[in-house]
Amino acid sequence: MKVTEQRTHARTGVSLTGMGLGCAQMGNLYRVTPYAESAGAFGASWDSGIRYFDTAPYYGFTRSERRLGTMLTDFPRDQYVLSTKVGRVMTPDETVGAEEEGYVEPLPFRPVYDYSYDGVMRSFEASQQRLGILKPDILYIHDIGTATHGEKNPHHWSQLTEGGGFRALGKLRDEGSTRAVGLGVNEWEVIRDAMQVFDIDICMLAGRYTLLEQQSLAFMDNCADKGVGIVIAGAFNSGILAGNKKFNYADAPAEMLARVDALRDACEAEGVTLQAAALQFPLAHPASLTIVSGARNAEQLTANVGWFEEQIPASFWARLKERGLIAEGAAVPGKGG
After folding, report:
1. What is Dmax (Cα atoms) for the chain?
2. Would you call 143 exposed, middle or buried from its count of C-beta atoms within 10 A (0-12, 13-18, 19+)?
3. Residue 294 forms beta bridges with which residues?
4. Would 229 disulfide with which of 9, 152, 178, 210, CB 3.0-4.6 Å?
């Protein structure tokens, strides 16, 4: 597998390189990332042939969009694919603290959830200004669902369905302001629900179809049948497949640690890097278009590319299936399920 290999979404014609760069770290996620480090990650990704970049207003409270736009606009617009997100309106607020919602030294713009028609349009227009790019290729509704909103989710869902949020997405697509629309979320169920009420093109799904977790397999199969493309994010399941003991950003339960140990044993038996298996497995599904991985600096980006392009023998995937570590019917790299 090569990061430069492109897959094209049939309905929209959007073509994505095998790997994309996720830009939350450009927003100082968890710790300060100096601009030079962010520029190093971007430069290494570009030099490796990556041409898909994902950001959001929320990342660093607008910092990520500002940084990425500065970097991207040095290149011809037809040489890259860009996605950003709507669902939060970034509102000037001098009370924003030194660390907010996981972002260190966020800029003084507080995120306010707004999935209404006006909220989507305001968020989109502000992103155009920050990025310096008029037409992002993909526009995602960001973080809708019960995992984010809990008991408030029905209110926010009604903003999308009855308050015009989906209508705004449709308008932006129809007028050519973006080429594809969808959701960027951490739960597959909300994408399933959205597909019942709106014509979805491409969605970003974080952490729900991975080497560790395949409960969404039937949903992924349905996406392939319906022509809905999936951008895979969170392939390391918040780090547990990359060396830490976190799962869904919390301490991993014992059964999950045991499953990771079993995967690691299989990797050692076959001479495979666990991170390489984690990056390559989700892309085998026919609904998958690309995998987005974050990198804080050039060194991390180079490591991700190395794992993505590592040669993995077919015997490794057979071993995982024999041990029940991959769901029945799940596709594996090199062949089907």
Report:
1. 57
2. buried
3. 22
4. 9
Residues 10-63: pLDDT tens digits?
Answer: 999 999 999 999 999 999 999 999 999 999 999 999 999 999 999 999 999 999
pLDDT of residue 335: 61
Nearest Cα neighbor of 34 from 296, 300, 293 is 296
Strand partners, 184: 142, 204
Give the number of other CB atoms < 10 A from CB of residue 78.
6
Cα–Cα distance measured from residue 112 to residue 311, given in angstroms and rounded to the nearest whole number: 45
State residue 337's pLDDT score: 47
Q: Each residue of 111-143: pLDDT tens digit?
A: 999 999 999 999 999 999 999 999 999 999 999
- Residue 331 three-state SS: coil
Beta bridge partners of 231: 204, 290
Residues identified as active-site: 54, 59, 85
In the DSSP assignment, the letter for residue 55 is -
The residue written with tokens 């179809």 in the block is 209
5 contacts: CB under 8 Å, gap ≥ 6:
17, 18
Taking phi over 0 as left and psi of -120 to 50 as alpha, with beta for the rest, 252 belongs to beta
User: Which tokens in the block code for residue 155?
Assistant: 């209110």
CA distances from residue 286 to 7, 79, 116 in whole angstroms, order as listed: 10, 25, 33
Look at the pTM and tell me if it is higher than 0.90: yes
Strand residue runs (E) in 179-302: 180-185, 202-206, 229-233, 246-247, 250-251, 288-294
* Residues near 158 by beta carbon (within 8 Å), at least 6 away in sequence: none
Could you tell me the two tokens for 227?
């022509």
C-alpha pair distances (Å), 132 with each of 36, 141, 334? 20, 20, 40
Report the 10 Å Cβ neighbour count for 162. Answer: 11
Mention every residue, 6+ apart, whose C-beta is less than 8 A from residue 97.
106
Q: 34 vs 24, 29, 60, 63, 296, CA distance in Å? A: 13, 11, 12, 11, 9
Q: Checking DSSP bridges between strand 19-22 and strand 15-17, what pairing results, if any?
A: unpaired
